[in-house]
Design goal:
This protein has helices spanning about 20-65, 85-115, 125-145; strands at about 75, 80-85. Helix content is about 65%, strand content about 5%. The protein contains 3 helices and 2 strands, in the order αββαα.
């Protein structure tokens, strides 16, 4: 006789598993809710990164496009002066914003993958789709700045 399916002696049929007690049922329900709360926290975090990256990309693009009207900036260091072009700052902001957005999307995907292992149902994330599209836009903006389009 196996431990998994206990058979009743008179009929030889397996006995049904007893229904979970109230404490077990509530614990499972609370675990499901905790997984869902963690998912929505990851969504909010990704949306925060989208806002931050979009601000950096758009500000960098704006600086790049009006750089011909602005002069280079001289920064005085401890040992020598450095000339910092407005285009350099623009490129830096666009690259930093795009890289931060890609990193946030990868971090989000890893977190959701772990949550799916714990029982989170599959669902489409609008924030993830937007982050991928804006990452592509960031690449296009950088290309437009470099090629002076």
């Amino acid at each position: 006789m196996s431990d998994e399916t206990a058979q009743s002696p008179p009929t030889g049929e397996p006995t049904p598993a007893p229904p979970p007690d109230t404490a077990t049922r509530l614990a499972l329900q609370r675990t499901d809710l905790a997984i869902e709360r963690t998912y929505w926290a990851a969504e909010r975090t990704l949306m925060g990164w989208i806002r931050t990256a979009l601000a950096m990309i758009s500000f960098g693009f704006t600086l790049g496009k009006i750089s011909q009207a602005l002069q280079d900036v001289t920064v005085k260091g401890l040992l020598r002066e450095h000339t910092l072009s407005v285009e350099t700052v623009a490129y830096f902001l666009v690259v930093l914003g795009t890289a931060a957005l890609v990193a946030a999307a990868v971090q989000y995907a890893a977190r959701v993958h772990e949550l799916r292992k714990q029982g989170l149902p599959r669902q489409v994330s609008i924030a993830f789709v937007v982050s991928v599209v804006l990452s592509l836009v960031g690449g296009l903006v950088f290309t437009a700045l470099v090629l002076h389009l």
